[in-house]
Structures are given as C-alpha cells and as structure tokens.
Design goal:
The structure holds two protein chains of two kinds.
Chain A lengths: L4 H8 L5 H12 L2 H26 L7 H25 L2 H46 L18 E2 L11 E2 L35 E7 L6 E3 L1 H13 L5 H10 L5 E6 L3 E7 L5 E5 L2 E5 L4 E8 L2 E2 L2 H4 L1
Antiparallel strand pairs in A: 1-2, 3-4, 3-5, 5-6, 6-9, 7-8, 9-10
Helix pairs in contact in A: 1-3, 4-5
Chain B lengths: L1 E2 L3 H27 L2 H17 L8 H19 L4 H4 L11 H19 L2 H11 L4 H8 L6 H17 L5
Helix pairs in contact in B: 1-2, 1-3, 2-3, 6-8
The chains are: A alpha+beta, B mainly alpha.
Chain lengths: ~300, ~170
Amino acid sequence: MCYDRGVLQAFLDNELPANRMDAVSEHLSGCAACRRVLHELESNAEYVNAAIESYTEGLVFDNSAERAWEQFSVKRYRRRWWSVVVNTLGSRRMAMVAVAASLIAVFVMGSIIIGPNLQKETANVEATRVEKQAARQAPGEKDDHEAGTLSAEPTVEVGKAPEGTGAVRSAVPSETRDGQTGGVPAAPKAMWCAESAHIPIDPSTVSDVSYSVAGGEPVPVTGEEKEQLVTWFNKGAATGPSLQAAERETDKTGPVLSFTLADSTVITVVYLNPEEVSVKRPEGVYSIRAPELSLFLHLKGGEAIDGIADR
Amino acid sequence: MVSRTGADEKEAAFREIFDKHYPELCRRLLPYLGDQTTVEDVVQEAFVRLYFRPPARQDNIPGWLFRVAVNLAYNHVRTEERRRKREYRVFRETLGTGEDEVLRREDITQVRETLARLAPRDRFCLLLRFQGYGYAEIAAVLQVETSSVGTILARARERFRREYSGFGKR
C-alpha cells in the first residue's frame, strides 16, 4: 500500500517515529510511484524555500526604537490599569459594568459639584482681572498680577485622587482667562483632573500640538519639536523645549499645552503650581518640579470625559 | 529635574531586552502578516505578556517571544481572515534601482502577493517550516494534530508553487 503525501512529506522532514521511518524507507525502495511523489515534494520544498529566502532577505523593519517603546508603554499602562480593575472585581464583565457605572457617576457628579465651583471660580478670575485693570490704571502702582498668571489664583479641591496620586485640583479652563481661547475648546461641563490621568499619548494618534502662555493665542508646534513635546509629555518631565522657550519669553508659569488627537480628542494640560509633586508614572514614581502637572483636562467635543476609558 | 526610584533598574533591564529583540522579532513576523502596523501591535503585545507574565525559564527569551508573537499573529489573521487581502499591505524592502534590482523587486513582490493569496494556515505553515520549526511546534501554532502537519505543508507548498509560477502567465 502506498503512503499519502503527508506521510512522505513527514518522512522527507525526518518527522516520523523511527519505526515508521524504516517502514517508509523500505517501501520507497520498491515503489517507483512513491519515489516520484517524494522527488516532487523535494522539488517543491526547494522551489518554495528559495523564493521565500529571496523575499525575506529584502525585508526591513522600519521604526525607531524610541517610538516603539512609547507605543509599548501605552499598551502596558492600559493593561496594568485594566488588570487592577479586573482583579479587584473578579471578572472582565464585572469590570466593564463597573467602569460604565463609574463613568456615568463621574459625569453626573461632575456636573453637579464642579459646575457651580467652575462658575464661582470663573467669577473670581473675572474679579481679579477687573482688579488688575484697575491696578494698571493706578499710576505708580506695581502690577503684581500679570494677565493669565494662573498660579496666583486659588485652586478648588474637587475630590480625592485615586490612591498613589497627588492632590486633585481644579482650575478654570483657559478660555475663561482674559477672554482668550488658549487652544482649548468650549468650557467643559465636567472635569476629570487627577494626576493618574496623565497616561502616555500614542504619538501616532496626535494630529496637532500647540502651546500658549499667559492666556495668549495658541502657538502651533510642528515637526521634530512636536514629537519632542509628545515624548516630553509622556515622560512627565518638565523639560519640553517649547515650554521652556515660552517661559523664558514671559518669565511666568501657567503655560497651556494642547494635544489634538486624530479622533478629535483634545488633551490640555495647564501647568501652574511651583511646588514639587510626585507623579505616578507607568515606569515608576517620579518627582517632578515646576512647572509640574497641576491640571489635566481631557476634552472631546468641548466636554470633559474620562481619559482612561476613552483612550 | 526628574529623580528616579529603584523601580527604574528593573525598567532599564526590561528596556534593554526590548531594544535588543524588538526589531528582529518584527522583521521575522513581517512575512506572516505583511503589514508593519499589525506586526508591531502583535510584537508589542508579546512584550506586554513578557512584562506581566514572564516564562519560568528565561534562558531563551527571544524564542519565547517569537512563539507568543506568532501565536498572537495566527489568532489575529484567523479572526481577520475576511479582510486578509486588504490588510496584506505593502511594506518596504531594501532594494536599489539597478536593472537587476528591478527584476528582483518584481520577484519579491510576486512572493509577497503569493503569500497573501494563501490561507493563513498554509502561509504560517510554510513560513514556520522555512524558519526551522519542527512539526510539533508548527502543530501547536496551527492548533492541529502533529500528524496533520506533513499534509498541510505538502499542500501549502503545492499551492504556493502553482500561484507563484502562474505570475508570468498573467
């Protein structure tokens, strides 16, 4: 009885048990038809392997190690965050239900609690602005309040940050400052501004980056500088080139960095507190000096949403 | 300006493994998937698994990573099979512009197209065998019996040869 092609292929690749190898070998010595099939299989193997070898030799993997590492870090951070939720609640289904419920609760509570505070804060800033104008008009009096100096303004505690993060603070969105837009869409209805929200941005999803200082017009950042800012944001370090340039120009803290993603999500970061804080990063805990992350707004279509769930 | 903690030592060691093996792993996976973005997704996921669930024995990390990545890749193409041809997009080859290179470019384009036309099982079987994997390892990735690998491999090569040799007649 002749062997099928699969057995002969396995014989050719020396992948049969020893006793079967012997049996097939014995059969082949007396069967011309099976020998022909064997030669055909050998010929096919040579033909295919030569074609694939020629092909794979020319392949090049084209990506920078830094970019790959950032993409990996985003995935790892998401997995860590999700694993904690799943492990805590016992199953993926429970975790998904809990996240959905949390999002709804955050949105509703945000509307109820932060909304009035936001209005109050906006009113405070408006009052400060009026005072500043009056001060400017007063001859000989020193102007201590430069326009848009957010660090001079009080911050409003809106809740406790998740474990391991710094304080959660609220501040006015930049469009309330001196009537400037500052690169931020319409005023958010709710805020989500824990430092734990400072998760990395996938560089490949960023379409536009801009910064503004002292309530000024947003300045678009392009090319290598744009990539550097995304990298800098992801590292959570206060060494961004544009930001430093902006600070030198104005000698003031309170610049705004804005990242627009391909799906129209806008991530806006306002830096305002001078003191040192610890920020929990995917890679570990870093201490970051001014201008450290003080406010994190994650806006989509003008409304603040839960950053982690959305990205 | 940024002070580091002890956790960074572990991170630095992991980064070293990542930088050392990531490009080669991606290059090896390219023929299976054909699309660099998908390859990178798969390889990064393999590293995420290495990070959270490393193997008990760590004497062959690149081998472990490749096995995980190729399994992820196979599961991916099986679930995305309907979009297989569309996803098998062009990626870059290192080729010059001379006459020989033009001919060679044509050759490898045809290989790529031929691989794209094969069913994922056939393509993975061909490539795994080409890369030196035994029947037991191939069977584990393809989720078939080891005794079936010879049949799958023989048929896959026949199909490849038929498709590839047919290019000149089109």
